[in-house]
Write a structure and sequence with these properties.
NADH Oxidase, about 45% helix, 9 helices, about 210 residues, alpha+beta
Length: about 210
């Protein structure tokens, strides 16, 4: 008989409570590519529209890459300089290109029956091929926002801190890191590393003020 898994609610809520935007990190702490890959893998468990997973990451960690990023993030120099890495999150406008691969792998791994894949793939392709570029952009930006939040919570669970950065040269960031700017839409930068301070607490509006019950 299947049983409902028991999760540690208190531990998760503590992660949510303790997550803050950190702007200064211990420059001596470097996150290995293996551990960063684990964090990114957990983050990609985030949901996405018809599971097309349109997010793409550029992990900016070398001194040369950070030097290239610095002039594009003029008001966030401390995060760029002191963090273990800055993760540039992009949304792929060509997300439909991966439909066949994703659904075929789901069948291969026993996650989806072949007949379901055969039914869904043409339906999804027909639907998404007919939507406007703006509608596609809006969808992939929402999906990539979900993975970004999950990335920050995962980083906290691993003992690291983050800061989401929206103030940078979005019109230059893709080309600066050898990506097609017409295909890859910038979502945000996320600095990550070991915090040297606790950050600032901030006020949150009460649920009673922002929620309606119908």
């Amino acid at each position: 008989m299947n049983q409902t898994p028991i999760y540690n609610k208190e531990a998760f809520l503590q992660i949510v409570q303790d997550r803050r935007a950190i702007r200064t990190y211990d420059e001596n702490v470097k996150i290995s590519q293996e551990e960063m890959s684990e964090i990114l893998t957990a983050a990609t468990k985030a949901p996405s529209s018809v599971n097309l997973q349109p997010w793409r990451f550029v992990v900016i960690e070398s001194p040369e890459a950070k030097a290239k990023l610095a002039p594009l993030a003029k008001f966030n120099q401390q995060q760029v300089k002191t963090s273990s890495a800055v993760i540039a999150v992009f949304a792929d406008m060509n997300n439909l290109d991966y439909l066949e691969e994703i659904y075929s792998k789901a069948v291969e791994h026993g996650l989806m029956p072949q007949e379901v894949k055969d039914q869904q793939v043409p339906s999804i392709r027909n639907l998404l091929s007919s939507i406007t570029e703006q509608a596609n952009r809006e969808t992939i930006l929402i999906d990539s926002g979900l993975v970004s939040m999950q990335l920050m919570l995962t980083a906290k669970a691993y003992g690291y801190d983050t800061c989401p950065i929206g103030g940078y040269e979005k019109d230059q960031i893709a080309e600066a890191f050898d990506l097609d700017k017409d295909r890859y839409v910038p979502v945000m930068l996320i600095s990550i590393g070991k915090a040297v301070d606790t950050g600032y607490k901030s006020y949150r509006m009460p649920v009673e003020q922002i929620t309606e019950w119908k």
